[in-house]
Amino acid sequence: MDDAGKREFIQKNVTSDLQYIWDDSEVSLDLQYRFAQHYRSLRVFIALGETTADIRTALKNDFQVDPNSGADQRAETAKVVSAWTAGRQLYEKETELHAESKVLGMPRNLQHSERQAMLKAVEAALGVLPEHDTPSSEYLAMKVEECENGEILASSLDEITSKTHKNTSSLQTSLDTAGHVRVVKNKSKGTLPNNTEEYRQALKLEAVTWMCMAAKFKSKHWLSDLKADHFQRFVEYILGDRVNAIKVPYDNQHVAIKPNWALVLQYEHRLRREAFKLVNRGEATLGDALVRVTKDPDLKEAYFTTPLALTTAETPVKYQKTSQKGNNEWTNRQKGKGKGKFQQHKGFGKGAKNNASKGKHGDLSLVAQTPDGRDICFAFNSQGCNGKCGRVHVCRVRGCFGDHAAREHSKFQGNQKKAEILGKPLVVTNQQAFGNWKSWPQFDEDRSYLGPLPAACSHPFHVRKLIGKENGKWKTADAAAYPPPLCKWLAQLIVSRKGESLSELNKQPERPLERLERPVQTQAHHEATAVEESQHQATQEADQDVPSEEQTAGQNTNADVRQHLHRGQKITLEWAGRARELVDGFGLCSPTLWEPSCRGAHMSAEAKGLCMEIFEMLSTFVDKKFADPRREAIKLGLGHFSSSPFTDKELEGLRRSWAALLPSKDMAMVVPERQPFLLGLVGQSLEAFGDPDYSVYMEGTDSFWNGVPVGYDEPLPRIPAVFPPKEKARPLDDSEFNNMACNYKSAEGMADDLEKKFREEEQLGRMVPTTLGRLKADFPDRTPLVAAMGAIRKPNGDVRPLHDGTHFVQLNNQIIFQDQLQYPGPEDAAHMVRHIQEEQEAVFALSADIASAHRLVKIRRRDWPLLGCKARSEDKTIWINCVGTFGISSASYWWSRLFSGIGRLAAYIMQQQNWWQLVYVDDLHLTCLGARKFVNMWIILLIYELVGTPFSYKKFSGGLKVQFVGYLLDYRECLIGITKKRGEWLVNFIEEMRKAGGTVLLRRFNEFVGRLGFVARVLVWLKPFMAPLYTWSSVLDRSSVATAPRLVSLVMRFLSEQLHDCTYVHTCRRPEGLSQELFRTDAKCELGRVVLGGVHLISGAWFSVELRPEQAPYLFKDGGESQWASTTAELLAVLVALHLFGFVGGPVKHVTTPIKISAGTDNLANEHLIKKGLTTRWPLCLVYMQMTKALMDSRLMVQLNWRPRDQNALADALTNEDFSGVDIQKRIHVDWTKLDFSWIWKLWNERNAYLDKDGLRASAKIVKLGDYEKSGW
């Protein structure tokens, strides 16, 4: 037999792992073939002998390979011995891992050599497999385990993963028989196919997987004839005209209908399940089973044709309105109490069952699972979900499964569906020329509809009422009721517009509009033009009702434009158990919210070319300017520069070169008065780059060029592409109106300094002096407002004026925000440190300060009278602010909007360079990575300087450890925290308060609490312990002196110990995620007793403990009532579970990266508590503080997931002392006295004085504050 025949014989008869061992040890093909006549599996081959001597003997006697016959024979013997040794080790390790996984109930761990052996065998038949066609190790391991167990399963399509799938490895734990916690890595699911191509890819992966199994398990007869062609034919059946492209006979022709994709996937999964059942029962091989199920008419009727017919016939109705008052059209929820019955709606409170198909979603028919059997998230459909539930976020309405919530299902009917089909803005047109519609809608005096819609539609293939009622419901129809000519016209319009951009559709026609009587042209292109002209005329006719361009610039901007320039999704971060999108301070459309490779990916070719030209110009300049950019950057970071390293001549030359690339180079070089920026340069560049907010810089009456409004007469504009909507507004203090307010004492004592400061501002064009008479003459329609002034002394001796725009003049009270400003917090800075550490690139960070940020925005002249002040109350001279003023609430809005555009400008020019930036008002933080980090840093600073940014160079700091808005960022060690000086201030304050016997001035105590809250945003475990401090400070007047109750003193002592033992920093490293729920708990509160229960979901260990008032008095009132403390009891059950299941309670751990575990509870309040991290409710705060301390000592984080009661039935049964659902041998008996609740008892014993608010107020003394200044920090 020739070599090809030998190879074919080996591939067909020898298991893949044995082939791999032979090939890896370089056993000759001839000897492999001879071995294959007798040894066809690894298990049998390693039984060839017990020792290497036995192997040599067998080779000599059975295969005539004698090591004494020469070097060739000796080498062949060595190769076989090597193969035998490697095979033996591999098999022993495989057996050990397999046995361990069986005992622990864990997924099988596939060794690298096993996987390589299978893939090599498959590649011999199919050729080299790319990564996206190569199954992941986890999925191969799962299928190997199924084959070994003799029961194969049809995986859902989201479980079929390849090597290219994002690494979502997490940790899961279990308790072994000895009570030890074992931690192993696990893989989460992928995503279901969204289209036919993704489905083909998934089934191709499935085919490769099962061919790997066929290569490994040669002894499995049901795999013997398997080929890739079996799966290919199965795919063609699913996607062909029998299923996905099914056609039905109608009017002597076959009409294609489009079944719901979810239904297709449901049927596909059912067929694979049935095929695998045939294999498990021994009735067919896998290849034959895949063919048989596609020919089974009963399966098709039950799982495809019948559901298809029913789904097509269903028409869900809108939500049912109730008679309840208020704006909410849903029935109000009424929460059940304790274990009692729930009234009206199910799903909340004890005793509720969540298996109803109808309920709070009115008459809609709801389902709990997707067609392929995955659980649907109830929270997403009801009130919203944070995305961490692990369930599918689709609509629960039967037959829908859209990407919207069930509560919004009705919005996705009718006109919105038309918009989604078109994929373009809705087009409004006259329907006169398309059939029965002869005029505009007509109504009678009672507003009842008269026409012109006919009673029914005119489609030939169905009859449908269009007006009136049918079965008590309105039948006004949507797109299906269009007359046939209009349907044809819409189809032509769609085809004619295919591929056009949004901006092209929005272009206004040059021709004037013709009236409605104009005949409709036959060509689709002309018809579309007429529609656009109709839109244009409607806009012109309604001009008198539309606000000015300045008012609506943001409203008319599609919010999605903030993403259309960049590829993919924004970066998301996770901190302290919460996940959200990254915030960098430069707006929702900031390029640095995306990964560098995604920034500007969808910019036009012209915009990319302009960016490249500017970047290369600046890069060339920096290369010539700095012989050693690294050395100069380090000098800048050390504060060795007192002024800009760029000369005025250099900046002027670069500006002219940049301006020459823009449409109006003259305007680009103009610096409008009273502000420093080249607004024409910024605005034109942003326009060229496609930025959504370019027009505010130099266009319109209210712009940065001419001056922006204060917001006194009208709301500030809404810019959805840059800022999210304002949802909450903090009420401001009420005061008696006085447009000529007197200054505060702090200002009166610094009057000379204030006047000097005002004159300096006058020289800069920011203020002008005037008199009241002149002010009234110049602005007769304005009431002058002269605000009360305060002043504080800055560390360098200068004075900072404080303009009170709230009290007396009530200016801030009239300003209405529509946008919510977003600034980066420690979470965003920590994410940046973490992200850079994970990239493992060299980094250089720089923090900068922008001088007088709020004073850099020009105010329109009409609003100048609103910004008056005086150096002395008795002065006749009134100083008018012409620019943004510290103390006027809109100043921060306009500065954020102006500088965010400048920051985006820098990001556009830098394109896909690896760098990041954050800005918090006037604090700018930059990080550059890679080999060009120092050059890029200078280019970025140069961009900011070219547009006019006034940096305070003496405040620059940089390196690998820098400060940003008070936080310390350590890029080398991947840490975030506060400086040692600030931490010691907190410790010293606590010590001073202790020495004073707990007596403190409340204003100073509030200063401490505020700074501690600042620290707790980083040292997150401190946050729960602030609850008593907040409670006590809220009871007393800030002007009082009081002695803290002992409970507060205990908390302060604990905080002091924690701050003493820590370094004031916290790791930014990503917690190891345990996404799988490890246990679930419940609590039952009754008169005189509370029962806690919990079960470990992996090991089956469980507990049930009954508590009496003497054991947990904080759960009971005097009469023994405990129902009021149900939330506290539920949280206590979680704490007990953490102890009993071995997660907490041991010695304090010192680890770099914390571990995050997940658990389930049917108490929604506790899920929110863990996310918020703070509660002042008593005694809930006691249990939460005790749990936080235990988690902190064990370096653990816990995530509680709310589960409906029917999903928490086992834990609920344990609280009812029903043990039928658990293994009685796995019960953990609880000795309550041995659980560490020392912190609860300490605080509980001091409750009386703490909870006596009247007593606290009586013991406090009001004092005159006088001149109070905050201490340095």
UniProtKB/TrEMBL annotation:
Keywords: Methyltransferase, Transferase. Residues 319-361, 501-563 are annotated as: Disordered. Residues 320-333, 549-560 have a biased composition (Polar residues). Residues 501-535 have a biased composition (Basic and acidic residues). InterPro entries: Hepadnavirus_pol/RT. One of its GO terms (molecular function) is methyltransferase activity. One of its GO terms (biological process) is methylation. Coiled coil: none annotated. Residues 334-348 have a biased composition (Basic residues). PANTHER family: REVERSE TRANSCRIPTASE DOMAIN-CONTAINING PROTEIN, RIBONUCLEASE H. This is Methyltransferase-like protein 24.
